[in-house]
Every structure is written in structure tokens, then in C-alpha cells.
Amino acid sequence: MRIVIAEDDSLLREGLALLLRAEGLDVVATADRPEPFLAAVDEHLPDVAIVDVRMPPTHTDEGVRAAVEARRRRPGLAVLVLSAYVERAFADDLLAQGGARLGYLLKERVGRVEEFMVALRRVADGGTAIDPEVVAQLLTRSRADRRLERLSPREGDVLALMAEGLGNGALAERLVITEGAVHKHIRSIFAKLDLPPSERADRRVTAVLRYLENGR
């Protein structure tokens, strides 16, 4: 796995690089600003980019915009965004491209090495990893979508775990049900949220975004 890191905090940037190399991963470049990050993506063709949301010069959403541009230049690039705070711009700008190979973790999660590595590998393998604390904070800030009230308590549990990035096998294990039952619940969630099959949008990602943005 070839990784590029974009983080303006030198201590965190170098600490991440050391951690990942100790795990046997190939950190091919690090950058402290969007421009050298994008140049590194062009040069090294990484599999994964780890990107801070807030970067110079304004420390607002430069990291998210750089991640969007990196995925435009290298379709399929896995991106794991790190932030000290919950940033709605991530869901609005980056996940809007489709949720495959995308993750969003609070920086405090990096210190929990096992959890961080699980999230990184999930994103690299094509999945989505969203920090549970991000889910909780977004839910406390958002208004309810009436369609979410159609969900049964069990379907609500399934959607909440989907929002944490769990795949169907992990969902079944966590809820102590069969994968067939998970598939049935997910089909019902799609129906109740008015999400028909579409080639333009990933229904799983759309359901998770609706959950994050509107809550129950």
C-alpha cells in the first residue's frame, strides 16, 4: 500500500509516517500544503491519501478541496480525512463524489493505533470509515428527516452501523443476526428512504449521508 500524507502539523505528520512504516506500509511522500500534496499524488500515484481537513493558507477546507482534486486526478484514490473537529464540508463535498474508498476520522483516533489501522485498511479495500464520534455529533446538530421515522428500531441499528463503515459481515456479527437478515434490513431501508436502484448514486452511501445530515 503506497501512501501520501498531507498534514501541516509536523509532529503529527512525521508521527503518522513513522507509525505507518512500522506497520510495514510504504509512505512515499509527505506534504504540509495542498500544492505539494497534489504534486506528490501526480508523481507517486499512491493507493491512499491521508489528508488533514484544515490546511494553509486559510486553514478552513483546503484539505477537503485538495482531496476532491486528488480523486479527480487519480480516480479510485482512497482518501482518509483527519480533522480535529466535525466538518460538514466533508460530507457535502467529498462524500458527494461517492463513498467508496473514503473515510473521516477525528485526529484523536490516530492514537488508538488498532482502530486507526482498521479504518485505514477498510478505506484502502474500497470501504467507508466514519468515526463514531462524528456520527454522534452530526446527529445532535441536525433536524429530523420524516423518512427516517419509517425505519424500525432494528433498521435504525443497521443504518447507524452502516454509518460507522461496517460491512454486511461485520453488521451481522455485531447484531448477532445472519448476513441474509442484514441484506433484508438494508433492502427495507432503501425502500423506506425512497432510494431506488441507480447507476448515478450508491444507495448505501446516500442512506448514510441522509442519516448523518438529518438524524432520527
TrEMBL record:
The keyword Transcription regulation applies. GO terms for molecular function: DNA binding. The lineage of its organism: Bacteria, Bacillati, Actinomycetota, Actinomycetes, Pseudonocardiales. CDD domains: LuxR_C_like. Keywords: DNA-binding, Phosphoprotein, Transcription, Transcription regulation. Residues 144-215 form the HTH luxR-type domain. The modification 4-aspartylphosphate is found at D52. This is Two component transcriptional regulator, LuxR family. One of its GO terms (biological process) is regulation of DNA-templated transcription. SUPFAM superfamilies: C-terminal effector domain of the bipartite response regulators (SSF46894), CheY-like (SSF52172). SMART domains: HTH_LUXR, REC. It comes from the Bacteria. Residues 2-122 form the Response regulatory domain. The keyword Protein biosynthesis does not apply. Gene3D superfamilies: 3.40.50.2300. InterPro entries: CheY-like_superfamily, Sig_transdc_resp-reg_C-effctor, Sig_transdc_resp-reg_receiver, Tscrpt_reg_LuxR_C, WalR-like.
